[in-house]
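To: structure subgroup
Subject: Chain for Friday's discussion

All,

I'm putting the inputs and outputs inline so they're searchable in the archive.
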Amino acid sequence: MTLGPYSTLKLFIHYKITNNQLPKEGMIPFKFLSKIGVYEIQIHGDTFKVRLVHANDYLVVGIGISELRSQFVTKIEGPLLRGAERRSQFVTKIEGALPRGAERRSQFGTTVAGLVLQPAQNPKYLQLCVGTRCLMYQLPADGYSQIPESLNDFLSDSEICFVGVRELTNCRISCKSYIQVNKLAARVLKKPNLSRCSSGILETLASEVGINLEESSSGVNVDWEAEVFTDEEIKCATRDVCACYLIANKLLGSL
């Protein structure tokens, strides 16, 4: 049976309501919402763009995930037929048609992503970092049952190595591939003592791989219950996830 436009719209609305995905009261139009909450910060010698997304802004999450995935794409060798795709440890799926001989480039060669939950106890935000892009997503207040599908798909991608500071225990965030950055460093550098390092771990690992990390901003306290942050607060909040990405990318890029 063919559905008319009105019936299709009703089904769409029913689906969104049952999945609790309709915009909530007070939400502004998407064309404006997608431009709000974007920060540009200078940290660890690089410039990062951070997208802050509230729990109910499910459409903007998709933009953030696309920005992260775009950092995986690197040069494609050889001609490609229109609509073709290739996958390797360096190249993500190419969406849409490409003309013969087309290529896309990125300076980021490994499919690694920094992943940090903040704060450590009773996390309020999930942070992801790939290349020079970060996503800072406010977790739903009622737990993680309503995490957007685009985010779940990203975390479930078996080709991405997620790297963080702490174990993902006592939380409902799960990844196909996850390792603590110190344990990754211990295995890659063949230095068992790094897997037992805890105090000042990021600074120690950065020194091992030749990266200069900025010190934490003194006098800046991040209120993890907040929904709006200053530039300095975002810089302080994302320091660890950016460091995890930079260290892991250097480690895996050496293989």
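Points worth raising on Friday:
The beta strands are 38-43, 46-53, 112-118, 125-130, 133-138, 161-164, 178-180.
Confidence is low (pLDDT under 50) at residues 1-19, 75-108.

D.
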